[in-house]
Specification:
Elements (H helix, E strand, L loop, with lengths): L8 H6 L20 E8 L13 E2 L6 E4 L7 E4 L8 E8 L2 E7 L7 H9 L9 E2 L5 H4 L2 H8 L4 E5 L7 E4 L4 E3 L5 H6 L2 E5 L4 E3 L4 E3 L17 E5 L2 E4 L9 E5 L3 E6 L6 H12 L4 E7 L11 H11 L3 E5 L4 H10 L12 E5 L2
Parallel strand pairs: 6-7, 7-8, 8-11, 17-18, 18-19
Antiparallel strand pairs: 1-5, 1-20, 2-20, 3-4, 5-6, 9-10, 9-14, 12-13, 13-16, 14-15, 16-17
Helix pairs in contact: 7-8
Length: 351
């Protein structure tokens, strides 16, 4: 297995576009928005000393305090939680109307909700939830969200395969992932909307990609250890077919693409978003890019080559991107790359 994490001429050749198989409704009329705010409510890291700029705000210490008798005041400032999970609050403004969606919910039942409280985020103002896929580190916080929302019904867009039982099988052990229950989510107040194909939300200004076309020659998906229960057997599940992304067209700037884990492949996802919308420019790519670990590190080189060619103005990978990919992306795109952290808010405005 290749150890290189640097883009090369062969890497660049492998990122050359190739036609997507089958037919698609193309393009989709994605209405441009005037402003978008993406607040990372949960990520794998939290760094209170990160410095923000005009477009990226940091939480730092002090958003919340808790009792602590060892201090003169009897209280202490706390930061935010971090865990192996992802959740982001997405607010889009079109003309005078703001709409807020939750994209994924993190790993633990209370982690995302606790961070929202510490940041002063009112989750009852949500107008919808989107799940990027069914893995438990993106859906674990739904029970905490349900408790926060109370008795109201909350629409939630998912791919029909989010209910698929999955496991990771290695020579050392078998880890059966927690599987989402549609019945339980309905009982907790979620109005589940299953969509396999691309869908438009928020008066046509937010696109949920649905299943992503796999068009690159290097993004092969999950290793053989990742399995799904289908047809009464455990089978290799390389595609995680329920993987989908959220896309917004920022007026005069280009596409803003938000991924959960990017199981479909970061380059596949960006290409799919461009193909669906007919918008060529990618302004920002945020979220998990799933380039961590021995099975995915060989993909770093061609991924970086393709993203460098796209030249996004903001690149904020998080969650499962991995430290090797982060270092390589930071070196290749120093003006665009921004380290992710729980509590970070990206504020992007139209040109």
């Amino acid at each position: 297995m290749c150890d290189s994490t640097h883009a090369s001429v062969p890497d660049a050749a492998r990122t050359a576009p190739r036609p997507a198989p089958g037919t698609a409704t193309d393009p989709i009329a994605l209405a441009p928005v005037d402003e978008i705010r993406i607040t990372v409510l949960m990520d794998n890291t939290y760094d209170a000393l990160l410095v923000g700029d005009s477009r990226t705000g940091r939480a730092g210490f002090g958003p919340a305090t808790v009792p602590a008798g060892q201090f003169v005041s009897g209280r202490t400032s706390v930061g935010l939680l971090a865990e192996h999970g992802f959740s982001a609050l997405v607010t889009v403004r079109r003309a005078e109307r703001d709409t807020t969606l939750l994209f994924d919910a993190g790993l633990s039942p209370d982690g995302m909700v606790d961070n929202a409280r510490r940041l002063g985020v009112d989750l009852t103002a949500l107008q919808g939830v989107v799940l990027s896929h069914g893995h438990f580190d993106h859906a674990g916080g739904l029970s905490g969200l349900a408790a926060e929302l109370g008795s109201g019904r909350m629409p939630m867009v998912v791919h029909p395969a989010v209910w698929t039982p999955r496991r990771v099988m290695t020579p050392q052990n078998v880890f059966e992932m927690p599987t989402l229950s549609k019945t339980a989510l309905d009982a907790e107040g979620f109005e589940v909307i299953e969509r396999r194909h691309p869908s438009l939300l928020v008066d046509g200004s937010v696109l949920i990609t649905g299943e992503v076309d796999r068009t690159t020659g290097f993004e092969h998906g999950m290793p053989v250890s990742h399995q799904a229960w289908r047809d009464e057997h455990w089978r290799h599940d390389p595609l995680v077919i329920d993987d989908q992304a959220l896309v917004v067209h920022l007026r005069g700037q280009g596409l803003v693409v938000l991924t959960g884990c990017g199981h479909a492949g970061a380059v596949n996802i960006v290409r799919h978003a461009r193909r669906l919308t007919g918008v060529a420019t990618v302004h920002a790519l945020l979220g998990g890019l799933h380039l961590s670990g021995p099975a995915f590190e060989p993909v770093i080189g061609p991924t970086v080559a393709a993203l460098t060619a796209l030249a996004p103005k903001l690149l904020a990978p998080g969650h499962c991107t991995g430290w090797r990919a982060q270092h390589t992306l930071a070196a290749a795109l120093p003006a665009a790359w921004v380290p992710s952290s729980s509590g970070t808010t990206h504020h992007l405005v139209a040109a």
